[in-house]
Amino acid sequence: MAPYSGCLANDCRAAGGPGVDVTFALAPNEGDANVVSYAYRLSSENTWRTVGGATARVTLTPQRSGLFFLEVRARDDVGRGRLGPGTQVSFMVAEGDAETGRWRFGEAAGAALDSGTSQGARHDAALSVVGATRDERGRRGRISLDTQGVPLPEPVTDRGLLLDGTEGYAATDGPVVKTGASYTVSAWVRPNALGSTDQVVLAQGGTDGFRLLYDGARGTWALRTATEGGPGQVTVAAGRPAVPGVWTHLAAMYDAAAGRLRLYVNGRFQAEESAVALVAADGPLEFGRAASTVSAGYAGYFGGSLDEVGVWQRPLTETEIADEARVVVNDGYNAVELVADWSATGRSGTTLGDTASGYAPELTLSGGAALDGRAIVLDGVDGAATANGPLVDDTGSFTVSTEVALDAAAISTRPVGYVGQILGRRSADGSVWGLWYQVTGMDTVLDPDTFEEVTVPVGAWRFGRRNADGTQVTVTSDQPARLDGPVRLTGVHDAQDGVIELYVGAVRNGDAEPFTATPGSGDFTVGAVTESGSSGEHLPARVMDVRVWAGAMASSQQVDAATGG
Asked: How many whole angstroms separate alpha carbon 535 and alpha carbon 227?
């Protein structure tokens, strides 16, 4: 098991670390002469693996620190093969080397302090006098709990680094990582606009070091660096276009042992390139710019927000990168940033402004949609409300919540199969994601006023995606949708686990559904779906509020605390 050792009753020593392999030798017990294979799994895995042979060796790679169990069951050659009882061995994985630098930009003024937990020197980053400020739109959102889950005396609104795209930047006074050795860099970014010009997120080492950037020629996120002795610049680029105006998590690494550069977007692997012997480049770590490759000075100024920057002198595992993208506060809570908040209380007119998020998107009402001081009233014919562009990165984690009351009289006229969208975002090949109501059947009940039998629709709440061919990838409510009052609905997309969840009130309904996210192109719409200027699937209902967060809420407790259940 080297470098690990099995835990004993009074001795469980940590060793190795995330990404450090452990090898086990499997053999039958005395008297077991007909073993032909073994089923095995780590405690961090849901599926069993199989290896053949009376004896075998298996190598596993722990993805994070902590206590692990290996469970093994031998299979014999009788009949179809019988599985024996399970045997477990436990071992402790040590913490990986801590970050060499961490910048959260939460200070009210002055330098961005390095809060990295490694034992090396601190690398505070000075902000430029012009073009670099802090605002209260940090990725950790409104923080009400400390890292142990204890409520803070007063909630704190997180700050981020806001750069103007022309002169603004931050920089340390020296190098933070050795660029010729293994390293990982990570950051949350929210670009204001994207075009054909490069915008640098992080860079170190002048023209020979690394650059994590928006690649204007490719229209996507990329890592660019130089190698010793050729072929010169190596670029690893994401396969999907970058999205302006939304929070996106980026991580890039150099694994010197494997000779690979790897890029991750929103905690998911994107691409890799071969790279051997990277240049050991000195120079400060730059936030939001890099040394120009064609002239003296700097170029690639970033316009938008940066936050939660981390740097490690080792390759992180994919699980560790996913954890970075989750922004875990503590068990059961992930940091989420409110990016849209529309409440109809006390409002009238044809537009509904954002009331709390600070990002200021605006809903514009159209057709038979109106504000009555308590709700957005949708007529189910042509009423809708739309906001321009994306609110979140559709391929990233997000949470959306609304309080909705169906118009029972209007719904009663809809046929089985009718779909009315509460809110969501459309693309050319279907609904990228959305919350909707669907009539699933009819039921005969006794009218309490007339004492006559009447036929009423039975329907369900759904969260997920509807494709152009009518197929769906959804989570469905456990109970029929209410027709007699308001209901709080919350949809969660966890990009790191690749699943969606639906909450009715604060209760999770159904199981998490596997979900492959796709980027959208249409408006965000309440009360209908919109595509190429036209709308359909109108819903007769009253919508009291709509809120959208960057980040996936992690539990019923967090949903309840954030939405009021």
From this structure: 52
